[in-house]
Design brief:
Elements (H helix, E strand, L loop, with lengths): L3 H15 L3 H17 L8 E3 L11 H9 L3 E6 L9 E4 L6 E3 L5 E3 L4 E2 L6 E4 L3 E2 L5 E2 L5 H5 L13 E5 L20 E4 L2 E4 L3
Parallel strand pairs: 1-2, 1-7, 7-10, 10-11
Antiparallel strand pairs: 2-3, 3-6, 4-5, 8-9, 11-12
């Protein structure tokens, strides 16, 4: 999951992302929200999973707020105790407080968790992506483990996988691994790219 080639690509994508000025980041996030609305992304499904951004990750909070405004049920991932274990998802309902996990990521403090199969749309963080829908993550394997069941599906697929990133995080090619599950879409400030019908 952390091959030398992927380490080099992660560094390349992180450097490009880190070079963005704060004003541009804010503009890009607003523009991505406009692109999502224009493309009708928020018309898909009721149960949406998001993430809370850390460091220089793409800020998905405006997308999360829009989904809440439109009456979607919104969830955040709960990280497993061991690396490369499936994520579970807790609903944002105002009844549960937020806490920092061992990585410093904010998570809802809830015991009522659901698995990814029950979600309609998953907004996913990433370090890099390519035009074939391959996602380069942080290397922990959590999303790979969470979505492993999709590798055996041929027709019906849930959830819809939407990566969000700045356009500068696009890479020429992300190495394909046997355990990879490709994105259905990628959303950047330049538009929504669809990889599957």
């Amino acid at each position: 999951m952390n091959s030398p080639g992927k380490r080099v690509l992660r560094k390349q994508a992180r450097t490009a992302r880190a070079s963005l000025a704060p004003d541009y980041r804010r503009h890009a996030v607003r523009q991505a929200l406009r692109q999502a609305l224009r493309a009708g992304l928020f018309l898909k499904g009721r149960r949406w999973a998001f993430y809370l951004p850390m460091g220089e990750e793409f800020d998905a909070l405006p997308l999360l707020n829009q989904a809440l405004h439109m009456g979607k049920d919104c969830y955040l991932p709960i990280t497993a105790q061991r690396i490369a274990q499936p994520l579970r998802f807790a609903k944002l309902d105002g009844r549960h407080g937020l806490t920092h996990n061992r990585y410093g990521i904010i998570e809802p403090h809830s015991r009522n968790l659901m698995n990814a199969r029950r979600l309609d749309v998953m907004i996913m963080p990433l370090v890099g992506f390519d035009r074939a829908g391959r996602r380069l993550g942080m290397g922990g394997g959590y999303y790979d483990a969470t979505l492993a069941y999709l590798r055996n599906r041929r027709r019906w697929r849930k959830p819809l996988l939407v990566g969000v990133a700045y356009a500068c995080q696009e890479l020429k090619e992300v190495p394909a691994e046997p355990w990879d599950v490709r994105l259905d879409m990628i959303l950047t400030e330049n538009g929504l790219i669809r990889f599957r019908a």
